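Readers of this paper often ask what the protein records in our data store actually look like. Such a record has a labelled line for the sequence and another for the backbone structure tokens. The tokens are whole numbers drawn from a learned vocabulary of local backbone shapes. We quote a single record here, exactly as it is kept in our systems:
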Amino acid sequence: MRPRLVVCDDPAERAATHIALAARASTERFHVAFSGGKTPWRMIDVLASLELPWARLWAWQVDERVAPAWSEDRNATQLYARLPSPACPQPIPVDPVRDPSGDDAARDYGGSLRDAADGVLHLVHLGLGDDGHIASLFPGDPQLCGEDCDVVAVGPHLGYRRVTLTYGALARAGELIFLVTGASKRVRLAQLLDGDPAIPAGRIRHSRCVVYADRTAAP
């Protein structure tokens, strides 16, 4: 149940290839969720350059900040800029004016996920924070223990409340892939691989989970 580690020179390219192969192998609508942050943008750029059945690929978000529409701080802004339009990005409908808590957005996004994919994503991409967080599940957040909902609002963290998939949604996904780079992640990656529950990432238990890491991040 522990993640499989793949150390390589270009983990972003390897992760993109992994997603592409999974999407091509699917004969139905392929539901994939992307995490935010700077590390995955190169992965998504590589993915966007590949030949894929884009009309069958539905891109979901793992998490999102409750920030104004088209803000540079919004993960959806980057997805729309980078993915081909047929990929049907499914943005988390956050609205800092009408719904500053993010609770309505979490409920609506969970409903959309159930309606479109029966609540089961084929593949979820995850990053790894310097504090060991995944998605927007941060150390000490009470939502770490909640698995009753697929999507919840959390925070605030670094100035924003956030909406995120939960452990329950991640556990039901077909497969999980991590993209981890940089020496600052080495200790946290070791904890992830060891299944250390002291950090959010260490609580992941999944039979199909692979970590693509560069040599500086590898423990």
